[in-house]
Design brief:
This is Phosphate-binding protein. Involved in the system for phosphate transport across the cytoplasmic membrane. With 341 residues, this protein is α/β, with parallel strands linked by helices. The protein has 3 domains: 37 residues, no CATH class; 135 residues, D-Maltodextrin-Binding Protein, domain 2 (3-Layer(aba) Sandwich); 142 residues, 3-Layer(aba) Sandwich (D-Maltodextrin-Binding Protein, domain 2), CATH 3.40.190. It contains 13 helices and 11 strands. Strands 3, 4, 6, 7, 8, 9 and 11 form a 7-stranded mixed sheet that branches. α4 links the parallel β1 and β2. α5 runs parallel beside α6. It is elongated, with a radius of gyration of 24 Å.
Length: 341
């Protein structure tokens, strides 16, 4: 913001030339301030260095998407904006969970398979057996699996060992005792003296599978975890009552919940922010993917190619920010665009 002491014109009857000079100075200062703000903002910098999308003629047809619930809103945003560019394009979006994407691509019932986790070796093997080549996987956004508590909960954060002890039956990450009450985490406020209520995703979810590996050291969930069909349901359940905790995609955060900082120790807690997700220092940072069927050495059909080019453009990455997720780094984005060529 430009300081008033720089912008104030002294004297009611200053000459026209002096007035133009002062306007020039103000514009220069404002331009410098905007540039400084852009440099200090990783969000602005990340998006404005991404190439803008250029509309192409003759794009029409239908795209079918089957897969991740985490990516459901993003797919909707992308499709709506793409349709404003190409009114002759139609979309069918089914968000049943990441595990439903590979079978749909193998069977040819989906054009695109959104996934919130990497493909399993068995899924790649099944696809390759059917089509004779592996699927193409594009990184299109970044997300984090957040540990949510209600916004009034005073807990400052959790260690990774505590996360495992809260959610896991097996405690493979090092804890020698399960955590079932808030007092074991140092929370003794009124309203937090009952057992911890646990919420998470169901087993077809990529978030479920990834959290199992990353947070439980591939252990087993407690049978007291209330499995929900979507991240929005997890967040709503945590926000609607005192004493609950749940894991879900950060993009579904609401004002009623708070994402806890996490770390190896309570002295090294890492908050969930755009910086810690994009540089992958937040423990549960992850990429979000779109899986497609692309024959090696052959171009994608025009409709699919243009939709994916839009997603990997300035406008597409702005939609990522709009939905509460994080744009991919520029170096990663360049590599993804090359996969379409």
């Amino acid at each position: 913001m430009v300081s008033k002491r720089h912008g104030k014109v002294k004297g009611q009857y200053c000459s026209l030339s002096n007035l133009f000079l002062m306007i020039s100075v103000l514009c220069s200062l404002a331009t410098h301030a905007i540039a400084q703000d852009t440099k200090s903002s990783p969000t602005a910098l990340s998006v404005y260095q991404v190439p803008a999308y250029e509309r192409k003629p003759g794009v029409a047809g239908k795209i079918s998407s089957v897969g991740s619930d985490t990516l459901a809103n993003l797919m909707t945003f992308w499709s709506q904006e793409f349709k404003t560019l190409y009114p002759q394009v139609g979309f069918q979006i089914q968000a049943s969970g990441s595990s439903t994407a590979p079978p749909a691509l193998i069977e040819g019932t989906a054009t695109i398979g959104p996934m919130s986790r990497e493909l399993k070796p068995s899924e790649i093997r099944d696809f390759t057996r059917t089509h004779g080549y592996p699927p193409t996987v594009l990184k299109v956004a970044m997300d984090a699996i957040a540990i949510f508590v209600d916004r009034r909960n005073p807990l400052p954060g959790m260690t990774l060992e505590q996360v495992d002890a809260v959610f896991s039956e097996t405690q493979f990450c090092g804890s020698n005792k399960a955590i079932t009450n808030w007092s074991q985490l140092g929370v003794n406020d009124i309203g937090y003296r009952s057992p911890i209520r646990l919420y998470g995703r169901n087993s077809v979810s990529g978030t479920y599978g990834l959290f199992k590996v990353m947070a439980l050291c591939d252990g087993d969930f407690k049978n007291t975890v209330n499995e929900q069909p979507g991240s929005a349901s997890v967040v709503l359940s945590v926000a609607s009552g005192t004493g609950a905790i749940g894991y879900a995609a950060y993009g579904y955060k609401t004002a009623g919940v708070r994402a806890l900082p996490l770390g190896e120790s309570l002295d090294s807690l890492i908050p969930l922010s755009i910086d810690t997700v994009r540089n992958e220092t937040y423990p549960f940072a992850r990429f979000l993917y779109l899986v497609i069927n692309k024959k090696p050495g052959e171009p994608l059909p025009t409709l699919e190619r243009e939709f994916l080019r839009y997603i990997l453009s300035q406008e597409g990455q702005q939609q990522v920010l709009r939905d509460g997720y994080f744009p991919i780094r520029e170096d990663v984005l360049v590599r993804q665009r090359r996969l379409l060529e």
